[in-house]
Amino acid sequence: MSGLAPTTLPGRPASLRRRAAALLHRRPLVRLGLLLSAPMLWLVVAYLGALFAMLLTAFWSTDTFTGEVDRTFTWQNFQDLWTGEVYRTIALRSVAVAAGVTVLCLAIAFPMAFYMAKVARPRWRPYLLIAVLTPLWAAYLVKVYAWRVILADDGLLNWALGPLGARGPGYGLTATVLVLTYLWLPYMILPIYTGLERLPDSLLDASGDLGAGTLRTLRRVVAPMVFPSIAAGSLFTFSLSLGDYITVKIVGGRGQLIGNVVYDNIGAANDLPFAAAVATVPVVVMLVYIAAVRRTGALEEL
Amino acid sequence: MTLSRGARLALRAFTALGLAFVYVPLFLVVLNSFNADRSFGWPPSGLTTAWWAHALDNEGARQAVLTSLKAGAGATAVALVLGTMVAFAVQRFRFFGRDTVSLLVVLPIALPGIVTGIALGNAFQVVLKPLGIGLGLFTVIVGHATFCIVTIYNNVLARLRRMGTAVEEASADLGADPFQTFRYVTFPLLRPALLAGGLLAFALSFDEIIVTTFTAGPGVTTLPIWIFTNLFRPNQAPVVNVVAAVLIVLSVVPVWLAQRLSGEATAH
Amino acid sequence: MQTKRLGVAFAALSLLALSACGGGDGSSTASGQGFKVPNIPAQKALGAGEGEVNIVNWAGYAEDGSNDKSVDWVHPFEKQTGCKVNSKVAGTSDEMVALMKTGEYDAVSASGDASLRLIAGGQVAPVNTALVPNYADVFAGLKNKPWNSIKGVAYGIPHGRGANLLMWRSDKVATAPDSWSAVFDQGSAYKGHVTAYDSPIYIADAALYLMSAKPDLGIKDPYALDQKQFDAAVALLKQQKANVGEYWSDYTKEVQAFKSGDSVIGTTWQVIANLVAAEKTKVGTVLPKEGATGWSDTWMVAAKAEHPNCAYKWLDWIVSPKVNAQVAEWFGEAPANSKACAETSDKSFCTTFHAADEAYFSKVHFWTTPIAQCLDGRTDAKCVDYAQWTRAWTEIKG
């Protein structure tokens, strides 16, 4: 514990340091200000600033003749977005895909996390967790391509299902949901596992001792307590699915999602204003989603 | 909770199935790195080690890994500093707008990558170009750090909450100034949380492609970008599988490390 | 390669910037295209190398052995000329133009949709072909084309070319097709197994088909469509969509789809057809009777090049028979240099890629990005620009 004893170093730096320390000690507001300054500068100025700049661009237009952005205010992009039936269809489809992925992830992740955290022998738990997290380090694109091969007409799935007389879904939206579920599953398992692990066994035992059956304990005790973790996981799966445009290109057949529309307009047409207008759709959806899950305390469980 | 034997078995079977779901595609990646067929046909027409030989002297892949390591390390370092600072502010102080701050930290990961990507990419071009700074590794690090802050923040926040302030107060009572207290008391206690959060941040950065696409300069090739361009070249696609297979095997190391450290962090 | 092609197809602005840039002093107007060309003189003579050269290029055009040790034409160039090559790979034509505007680069491998923009913007100078000895051996069919010259003045050295062909699985498609009608009007025979290129530029393929299928629409150039012609092409593609299994954008995807049988008929590049065949899948390809769309790149020199002598040396190097053969084989395209055909490692390469077949390429309409002024010279009509093509493509895919 010698390190804790105040050490007096000779010379100016030490005294400067002491003065700073004393100031910090006396003035909590200065401490707070210093703590918040850099992160807020980063997040507010750099990040929020960039977001607002993008939003602003959405009210401009691209001059089709010169290709330059014309900085006069216009609602045209939003009008096009609103009146174009195709954009509504794509937006709804994207939300449905994201919701589907989230539900599927939850359905798979909860039992697995429950087994890992509460049923498996304690010494096995870390290894199970490693097993679940390893795929996060395998490259995203390579995993998607592996799925493309699995789902192909003469691929692994049809090869395995063939003798049973069944066939896989082929490329399309079903495949997209399946692959996205695969990709984001670890992001759902991890928070739920952490949430369940934190839940004392004694609480579950008490519920049992008081006469609650397994299902009732799950519903009345476990579910409410891990709900924030579930919401946190869903934030990942929902947002990651909503922003994806690569998976659907590889296994989505002829389908397209909102991310593709944004990407095509910026990458292909260099029409940043319209791309920005389209991008506000997932932003609004996510803000609503965040507002909804925020009450659960999910944001502190990520 | 007392589960019936049947329920336990069912859960175990379900978990086994879930793990199979997770591992079959990974197994396929490893298998395809030996598949003689260039477009990974199933079943493999033959096995070859040619792709491994190709991959071993692929300078582009090595460079890309190096770039990704640099980007990941840079983003993690920035996120560690910023995330810890916010976590301290939010956990140790009560102030107006505290909820907004925590929301702000979450936002970059909660908004779809393509939104973050084009917003940052656009801002970099507008703001940095007049300063003579083009898109490059630096902008990738900034972009990644933005959405990595949250992993550090949450880990540190959880740790701070459990730690309480008693030890720090004791340290102060014994005469330590705030710097000493941080250096000798708080930091060692936070270390597992920092490492766990840092590794997750690193993982996020290492496999990120969407934000990277929009923020990387033309000369900057991170591993996912390298994979993106090479997966679509006929002679290179199998080599990509080799790189991925190597990554899968090597990934056990950081994941194991993260698990041990976070396990330590949550140990009672 | 994928990135490159996407770039070509994707680049949006193309000629849009033309009239805006131009500028007054001593410019001339290119006939029929309605934009002004800045008066920049070509280099008169070649001096000593400057020790380095900065180039902007598509992936695969400046290989230094880092992807494959046997594929390296950068180091031999450096050894021979003493010019160190700093290569920057661009992802899209837009990026290429933006990079050239920075003024830091000496040469660029511009595609048909970027080259005219660079010329009109004054970023590139005419090329004195006398200083590029290997230019003499470039196929006549690539010289003085609308995308690489203005009024007979060469602005670059052609690099290579390719066509977008029709490919089918010969074991699943009973009769060999010879018309694009196989994927448009008769696509329903292969419902769910038709494939098409995933880019707005594919609308030109439909327009090309309509040129002969519906002559009364009066389409002369598939990249110059007025609203009525454009709507007809879009309608055709919407109708085709019902039969499409998937759209392809990278060639690993298409090779795999044809091999597995997910796709049995659709557009392709020669290099993909070869790869599919190499995977022991029976496929046939044809340049349909209506002709086809295609692509071609040009090496250009920056107007304000800091290292012009090294840039010229690079231009000459990249179209020299041996190197041009290497690039073409690595990339999968027809080489520009007629003598390259003797240098390919696969002796039948040039035959396979129709390198010397001018009759073949005369039927190819090379990619050009559509702009509001009709590229076919019509002045009484307004054409649909690429931004609208992009939105229509979103609508077609639905």
UniProtKB/TrEMBL annotation, chain A:
Q: Which residues form the signal peptide?
A: none
Q: How does it sit in the membrane?
A: Multi-pass membrane protein
- Residue stretches spanning the membrane: 34-60, 90-115, 127-150, 170-190, 221-242, 272-292
Q: Where is the ABC transmembrane type-1 domain?
A: 91-293
Provide the coiled-coil residue spans.
Answer: none
Subcellular location(s): the record lists: Cell membrane
One Pfam family, please name it: BPD_transp_1
Q: Which UniProt keywords apply?
A: Cell membrane, Membrane, Transmembrane, Transmembrane helix, Transport
The record ties this protein, via InterPro entries, to: MetI-like (IPR000515), MetI-like_sf (IPR035906)
PANTHER family listed in its UniProt record: INNER MEMBRANE ABC TRANSPORTER PERMEASE PROTEIN YDCU-RELATED, INNER MEMBRANE ABC TRANSPORTER PERMEASE PROTEIN YDCU-RELATED-RELATED
- Record-stated family: Belongs to the binding-protein-dependent transport system permease family. CysTW subfamily.
The protein, known as:
ABC transporter permease
From TrEMBL, chain B:
Membrane topology field: Multi-pass membrane protein
This chain belongs to which protein, by name? ABC transporter permease
Superkingdom of origin organism: Bacteria
Q: What is its main location?
A: membrane
Q: Name its species.
A: Actinomadura parmotrematis
Annotated ABC transmembrane type-1 domain ranges read 65-258
Q: Which residues cross the membrane?
A: 9-34, 71-90, 102-125, 131-153, 193-217, 237-258
Q: Which family does it belong to?
A: Belongs to the binding-protein-dependent transport system permease family. CysTW subfamily.
Pfam families xrefs: BPD_transp_1
- Which CDD domains does the annotation name? TM_PBP2
Its annotated compartments are: Cell membrane
Which keywords does this Swiss-Prot/TrEMBL entry list? Cell membrane, Membrane, Transmembrane, Transmembrane helix, Transport
Database matches in PROSITE patterns: ABC_TM1
**What SUPFAM superfamilies does the database record attribute to this sequence?**
MetI-like
Which InterPro entries does this one have? Bact_Polyamine_Transport (IPR051789), MetI-like (IPR000515), MetI-like_sf (IPR035906)
Q: What is the lineage of its organism?
A: Bacteria, Bacillati, Actinomycetota, Actinomycetes, Streptosporangiales
From TrEMBL, chain C:
Concerning SUPFAM superfamilies, the annotation shows: Periplasmic binding protein-like II
User: Where would you find the membrane-spanning parts of this chain?
Assistant: none
Task: Work out whether the entry's keyword set contains Signal.
Answer: yes
Could you name the domain of life of the organism this protein comes from?
Bacteria
UniProt keyword terms in alphabetical order? Signal
**Pfam families assigned to the protein according to its UniProt record, in alphabetical order:** SBP_bac_8
Keyword Kinase attached:
no
Q: Which residues form the signal peptide?
A: 1-22
Q: Which InterPro entries match?
A: SBP
* Record PANTHER family: BIFUNCTIONAL POLYHYDROXYBUTYRATE SYNTHASE _ ABC TRANSPORTER PERIPLASMIC BINDING PROTEIN-RELATED, SPERMIDINE/PUTRESCINE-BINDING PERIPLASMIC PROTEIN
Query: What protein name applies here?
Result: ABC transporter substrate-binding protein
The organism named in the record is Actinomadura parmotrematis
